[in-house]
Design brief:
By secondary structure, the protein is mainly alpha-helical. 61% of the residues lie in helices and 7% in strands. It contains 11 helices and 5 strands. The strands form 2 sheets. It has a 3-stranded mixed β-sheet. A two-stranded antiparallel ribbon has the order 1-2.
């Protein structure tokens, strides 16, 4: 039976889907279609754009503090901290992010909510977990399949010339959207759990993660019901973290026994004024 472009496309789609099955650190099945180097390139490009659009905080104490916490976390998970770029942005936003391509950004307003090194470690551990668990790639892959792009691209990938180039361009566009789109509840909850383990392994007190979300809850002054949000409610996050604390506490005690005890000098925005 002679092969047709449509049949070839279906075979490519099945092969891609079979090869794309991955498992996260929590044992959750993931659909991963994007080449990691392409996603990393998009992350680096997004970070360059961010540095052009947002003022960079050049206070040496603040940068040293944030870098100290980030470096401790990255060392604990063997992520080669010297390869990561950490930037503090001058903004009142209580926010932070990490991108594929080994980029970390912290808005200075976060330092008035994450008031201790342990609380800041909870923030950065969470964001780093988004990268290590390939959540951007997962989001892009899900969107790509949902939009019917996978079948069309699989046909193009079986050919050559313009259609092949258009398929690769579609992957690039999808990566750009994925880097910037917000994560869903599943990924947020997973980043909470994995990030909690990261901070404990680095020697940060995991109880700081619970306190962080209590601070966030107080700062928010009330949040929408969980079913109306793409993120878990503060109450759900606190409950889940408290349930995970015994395992994290064991990791923390082991880290302390090894001599891993970060001493990052705390800096807040209000203390600089």
């Amino acid at each position: 039976m002679q092969s047709t472009p449509l049949r070839t496309g279906r075979l490519w789609a099945c092969a891609l889907l079979a090869a794309a099955c991955a498992t996260s650190a929590t044992g959750r099945k993931q659909l991963i279609l994007m080449p990691e180097d392409e996603l990393s390139q998009m992350g680096r490009q997004a970070f360059v754009s961010m540095k052009k659009q947002e003022p960079v905080d050049d206070d040496p104490r603040t940068n040293q503090y944030v870098s100290c916490v980030a470096r401790s976390l990255l060392q604990a998970i063997d992520a080669k901290p010297e390869q990561w770029e950490v930037v503090v942005f001058e903004s009142d936003q209580a926010n932070a992010f990490a991108l594929p391509g080994k980029k970390i950004g912290v808005f200075s307003g976060m330092l008035d909510v994450a008031r201790t090194q342990d609380e800041l470690a909870a923030v950065l551990g969470h964001e780093i977990a988004h990268v290590t668990q390939r959540h951007s790639n997962e989001r892009v892959s899900q969107a790509f399949v949902a939009q019917g792009g996978l079948a069309a691209a699989s046909v193009a990938l079986g050919g050559e010339g313009t259609t092949h180039d258009l398929a690769l361009a579609a992957l690039g566009i999808g990566a750009q959207v994925g880097v910037l789109m917000p994560f869903g509840r599943t990924q947020e909850s997973e980043a909470d759990v994995v990030g909690l383990d990261y901070m404990a392994r680095a020697g940060f007190d995991p109880r700081g993660a619970v306190q962080l979300w209590k601070n966030m809850e107080a700062e928010a002054g009330g949040s929408p019901p969980e079913f109306l949000s793409t993120h878990p409610s503060h109450e759900s996050r606190i409950d889940d973290l408290e349930k995970r604390l015994p395992e994290a506490w064991t990791l923390y005690q082991e880290a302390r026994a090894r001599g891993d005890a970060p001493r990052c000098t705390v800096v807040s925005v209000s203390s600089r004024e």
